Amino acid sequence: MIAVAVIVLLICVLFFGLRRRLRQLPLPYYEGRHVVITGCDTGFGHMLAKELDARGLSVFAGCLTNNGEEELKKSCSRKLRTFPLDVSDPDSIKKALLYIKAQLPDDIGIWALVNNAGIAGSVGPVDWLTRRDYEVVMSVNLYGMIDMTNACLPLLRKEKGRVVNMTSICGRITLAPTPYCASKYAAEAYSPLSIIKSKTIQLWENNDGSFGGTLYYRMSHFPEGTYRSNLYNVSTPDQWEIIRHMPYDYTSVTHVGPFENAQDFKKPTVSSKYPGVYFGDHYNLSVIDIQNLRTLYRCKYDGYIISPPKEYRPVHCTFDLSLCGLVNDWTSSGDKWTEKKGPVSDRGPQTDHSNGAGKYMYLNSSDTLRTASLVSVREISPGPVCVSLYYYMDHNTTTLTISQKESTSGQTTTIKEIVGSEEVSSWTEVMFNTTVTTPWRIMIEGSSEEGEIAIDDVTVQYGDCPVYNKCGGQ
Prior knowledge:
The protein contains ten helices and 16 strands. The protein is α+β, with helices and mostly antiparallel strands. Strands 6, 8, 9, 11, 14 and 16 form a six-stranded antiparallel sheet that branches. A five-stranded parallel sheet has the order 3-2-1-4-5, with helices on both faces. Strands 7-10-15-12-13 form a five-stranded antiparallel sheet, with no helix packed on it.
């Protein structure tokens, strides 16, 4: 049995190795081969058209703009023919097909169709995107591909040709909640149907597993390294250089979660080098997101043009749930607040404030000054807010400082400072209004030399603090 298994394994290795090698062999000749490529204005389509023209193939290059056609004609031979093409428009496809048929010799078809045309479309959180955003992208990236393939099938059958559908890694892994990713997933699903529809059509599979073409030569003929497509090329290279030096943003709305594409959900695929940092759960643009957008799209600063939708309570933390929203400040090298439940000592809190059976945050010191800071994970939008929390401090050496922390610079501004007292040893509420003019995070710093500090039920809500009617002096 072992011998049989070894023989079968060797046969498989030889078969797949030989098939791979045959696919890498160059064509014996290019004369008389006609290739149709869509989306040749810029990017991969532009590069492929020039490459195949240089190798002697007859290329029909579809371009959306007159400028795209002119640029190709300047750098290619007279053998290359350009034509206007908008794959989202069925009439444009019909006119293009009539032009191609008129240029082809009698009884000659198309050796290959390369469906390269594509657009990026809108990018943003799912609830910001409309049906129209998806329809626009699908009309090019999916329906344009289908319509072009159907239109060219009769000509492809004449030459027993092949269809090459240019897709993307976004068709295998959703890197962002965009119509682009949805369209590429659909294109991946459609591509094998090109084989089913007509057995004379060959569709090759790339080395990375995505469908899209080889034309019997590998993409290694393009320059090595990544290629920056013009899909997002709105800004200049110097602006991208500015973006590259922006601080890393865990709170970005585009940041993936810790278990993105994980096969084992006990093992995160992405983790932070700072403990207690949460990411991948944000629905608002962060300060750095807005700065990046402003820089890349050269927006004039006239206040925050892009206003993220506000939550009623950007911070509401009882410390009873694992994803509270307040974490130990990862930029601080000081001590850390610890999570406690029930009594810690005779003079400290015996229960939490929320319900008597939950958790609270705790800091203790004995003859040594200890300082620890909590900071909110999510940003708080500019404007008036109400801050409230409950604290427990049993000594006059204990201090609780509530500050505003800038998201980008990390600078802090004190909003409220509370000094402990030996006369008060119970949970005490503090509530106050404050107004901040820039996006910020709340920071709660505890400092103790001999006593204990505990905090619970921290809330920041938009608007003014509620006014309670006091009756009988209460």
